[in-house]
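Late entry, evening session. Most of the bench is empty. Finally got around to the prediction I had been postponing all week. Sequence below, unchanged from the version circulated by S.P.
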Amino acid sequence: MDTSHLIQHAGTAGTLFASIFVIATTTMRTMIPLRVFGILANIVLIIIAIPIHNYLVILVQVVMLLVNSYRLHQMLQLVRDVRKSVNSDLSMEWLKPFMTERKCSAGEVLFYKDEKADSMFYIVSGRFRLVESGIELPVGAIVGELGMLSPSNVRTQTLECVEGGVILSVSYDQVEQLYVQNPAFGFYFLRLASARLFQNIDTLEQRLAQQVTAVEPKPA
């Protein structure tokens, strides 16, 4: 039985379906659907290439399939971690894979009050202090994220390294790219930033109440 015509027709149909998938990927506005369609296109192209023994196409598509699968897993993991963070202790460890490590020495100033803000930081080790308020930030704290949301994008305080340590930094541009790739990330990031803003307000109210109590005259 001559199967050459069957293979030819199957290849034509497969190419048509693969083309549809490729065109569909150009209409995707977010990264997760784009990766899913990319994976489907990779699978279809591999199936097409097997009967005609096109090993180059098979190799390329297998590599692309692995890349798309990894990126899809990474983005889904990001969404899960952000959702978990929002529902728990507001930790932002889910951002670590997208951040750059930086070593700081005692006395080093990471940024000054009123200067332009373009990144935020995650404290891995060491001691860091907000100079104007005197607040010392613990390990695991995020600082600088509210500058991204402020209209003027300027620092509200100066951050100084008190004891040498390590921080992780991520630029606002990278955060914006993550938002464009997956709007769910932006939604949860805004919830995190809002929650941290309310925490800061609560801390300031407590400090103000302590100061008022300290200056109140004691009854004779």
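Two things to note before I forget:
The chain has five helices and eight strands.
The beta strands are 100-104, 109-111, 119-123, 127-130, 135-137, 142-143, 159-163, 165-171.
Will write this up properly tomorrow.
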